[in-house]
Amino acid sequence: MTVPARPPLLFLDVDGPLIPFGAAAGELPGGRYPTYESPAAPELEAVHPLLARIDPALGPRLLALPCELVWATTWEYDANLLITPLLGLPELPVVCWPDLSDEQIPLGLHWKTRTLLGWSAGRPFVWVDDEITATDRAWVAARHPARALLHRVDPRHGLTDRDFAVLEAWLRRGGTGYGTAGGRTGGGEFGDRSRCGGDAEGSTPGAVP
């Protein structure tokens, strides 16, 4: 019996890719970031005023990508509570971050990188973030058995047409086959950890050294 191939994962950050920040006034039309209205916006803006910068049109574009979306953000489960309503997304899996000391993070490596590699469990993945560096790309390339795209988004502008073109081309070019790591078949042990509580704190099953 042939098991259908699972699609690549897409690990999605919030601050930077979805909530742009850091542009000078002269870089923005009218000198400020555009804001967007949605039925949920007034209530959510009271929680975080920058949520109004999230463009609802990004939701359908993300859903159209041939991948499995996963929140990979310090918002953790709050991303499902506060951001999915603005984008029209379903509730997504959430990566829960362990408490890591500086000594546990290799020099120059982003603090998310090891956890995401363990979470992927050998599946192809895309990581969309505004803090990715060449060190992260080299580290993943040396340890991951399948394809991976670490795509850095300019936080001043967030996800743009150009970013989506890169993501779409990579996802459609490579198919959905993937290798395995340590006998796992991709993220399953993390599937019920979306609320980032309990034993998720302080431990990372499958983390790659």
Main β-sheet, spatial strand arrangement: 2-1-3-4
How many individual helices? Answer: 6
Number of structural units classed as domains: 1
Beta strands, count: 4
Protein name: Secreted protein
Region (Disordered): 181-209
What does this entry look like structurally?
The chain is α/β, with parallel strands linked by helices and 209 residues long. It has one domain (9-200). The protein contains six helices and four strands. It has a four-stranded parallel sheet, sandwiched between helices. It is globular and about 45 Å long. The two termini are 34 Å apart. The relative contact order is 0.21. Mean pLDDT is 82; it is low at 175-194 and 198-209.
Question: How is this fold's topology laid out?
Answer:
Elements: E1 9-12, H1 41-47, H2 58-64, E2 68-71, H3 78-87, H4 113-120, E3 125-129, H5 134-143, E4 148-152, H6 161-173
Parallel strand pairs: 1-2, 1-3, 3-4
Any key phrases for this structure?
6 helices; disordered C terminus; Secreted protein; 209 residues
Structure described in brief:
It comes from Actinacidiphila rubida. The chain has one domain (9-200).
